[in-house]
Write a structure and sequence with these properties.
The protein is of the alpha/beta class and about 180 residues long. The protein has one domain: UDP N-Acetylglucosamine Acyltransferase, domain 1, CATH 2.160.10. Helices cover about 20% and strands about 30% of the residues.
């Protein structure tokens, strides 16, 4: 398997592989261009975002600045809004459902490292996918950790660190994020 195939399969891989380095560089150049564009270049910015992202299923809006690793592993549903400063480390799939709202500085991390020092110091890493359901609201500064699934209609409190799956129609907050209450729709 290539390092990219290992990465996409969730296995330990070498992020210094030349192809992966080039793909991250390409994404970085594109989002730097996107982040430098003014409102008068709205349509050009949206076109570049569509080139950068893996899939967009309708309308979406991303306030610059926006950051990611590769871009091609990010899939957006319809009517997704990301406020200023969102960062997605998309080593594996990040699927964001319809009508999702991400407040400023939300961080979504699929990338992770081994807990054991010897393995971690090898420079190799792995990742776990993240799924964010429909009608989810993620508060400012929240961090979504590798492998988390957030159910439809959930709300994540500002500053929360989400380390475990979140059930549909629930409100979680804190560090680590804990169940606060159910949401009646």
């Amino acid at each position: 398997m290539t390092e990219k195939q290992k990465m996409l399969a969730g296995e330990m891989y070498d992020p210094s592989d030349p192809l992966l380095v080039e793909e991250r560089k390409s994404a970085r150049l594109k989002f730097q261009q996107i982040n430098a564009m003014g409102e008068e270049q709205f349509q050009q910015r949206m076109n570049l975002l569509k080139e950068l992202l893996g899939r967009t299923d309708g309308d979406f809006y991303i306030e610059p600045p926006f950051y990611c690793d590769y871009g091609y592993n990010i899939e957006l549903g319809n009517n997704v809004y990301m406020n200023y400063g969102c960062c997605i480390l998309d080593v594996m799939k990040v699927i964001i459902g319809d009508n999702a709202m991400l407040a400023p500085n939300v961080q979504i991390y699929t990338a992770t490292h081994p807990l054991e020092a010897k393995a971690r110091n090898s420079g190799r890493e792995f990742a776990k996918p993240i799924t964010i359901g429909n009608d989810v609201w993620i508060g400012g500064g929240a961090i979504i950790c590798p492998g988390v699934d957030i159910g439809d209609g959930a709300v994540i409190g500002a500053g929360a660190v989400v380390t475990r799956d979140v059930s549909p129609n629930t409100f979680v907050a804190g560090n680590p994020a804990k169940f606060i209450r159910n949401i009646e729709n």
